[in-house]
Specification:
The protein has an eight-stranded mixed beta sheet with strand order 1-2-4-3-5-6-7-8, with helices on both faces. The chain has helices at 41-52, 71-79, 83-99, 115-126, 167-179, 207-225; strands at 4-10, 13-20, 27-33, 56-60, 103-113, 130-136, 154-159, 184-189. The protein starts with a strand and ends with a helix. The chain has one domain: Rossmann fold, CATH 3.40.50.1820. The protein contains six helices and eight strands, in the order βββαβααβαββαβα. By secondary structure, the chain is an alpha/beta fold.
């Protein structure tokens, strides 16, 4: 069944997010992090898909009510993010998930797309309650994860024709992770563009690769979190 919007956090930092719970009533927790468009229907659908696979998924609204379909406006929203506030929102989302009786694990997974991909890695570096990190073509020029603090294994999916995160940048990040002794499994898919997982964007969506990523991600979470 579809999820619902909830409020979470403490009196000093309240946030909203989209929560999806499996029909079984319980499962591992996963934080789903938005693209630069905001908390749009596609991200809510990803959370619902996780719930259909037995996970409890929470997608925090990092723009606090704003969203857009304009690339120019999305870029401005992304660059206007208050990174310390984002850190509080991410920590609040993780804490809120783990406090829910439906969540059956002591750690959560994170996954993000585009801007959210970088934030997924950032959250895993900032919070030891992240037990598995997935990033899809992650980018944010102002977010610098502290890779030495990372405890979770990282699974990454990237696109050969991505102008934002080209293969050379992927190789560099993978090298940096391994240089500090971290577990990184990165795949660069040939012949596809940035956002190939987004099935609401027909001009870039690649069904076969998206399905491959989905299956591999579920297996990764099932191994690391359950």
């Amino acid at each position: 069944m579809p999820g619902t919007m909830i409020e979470f956090g403490n009196t000093e930092n309240r946030s909203n997010g989209y929560l999806a719970v499996p029909n079984s009533g319980s499962g591992p927790g996963v934080v789903v992090l938005q693209e630069w468009w905001g908390l749009v229907d596609h991200i809510k659908d990803v959370a619902d898909r996780f719930a259909s696979e037995g996970f409890v998924a929470l997608a925090p609204d990092l723009y606090h009510g704003e969203s857009t379909t304009s690339p120019d406006a999305a870029g401005k929203l992304m660059m206007a993010l208050d990174i310390p506030q984002v850190e509080r929102d991410l920590g609040g989302a993780i804490e809120a998930l783990l406090a829910r009786t439906e969540v059956s694990t002591t750690q959560v997974g994170t996954v993000g797309f585009c801007m959210g991909g970088q934030l997924s890695l950032y959250a895993a570096c900032e919070n030891e309650s992240v037990g598995a990190c997935v990033m899809f073509y992650g980018i944010h020029p102002r977010v610098k994860p502290n890779l030495k603090a990372l405890a979770a294994p990282v699974l990454g999916f990237f696109a050969e024709r991505d102008e934002f995160v080209p293969p050379a940048a992927v190789r560099q990040l993978e090298s940096e992770l391994r240089a500090v002794g971290k577990s990184a499994d990165f795949t660069v898919f040939e012949g596809v563009d940035h956002a190939f997982f987004n099935d609401s964007r027909a001009e870039v969506y690649h069904e076969q690769h998206a399905d491959t990523c989905w299956s591999k991600m579920l297996g990764f979470y099932n191994e690391c979190l359950r």
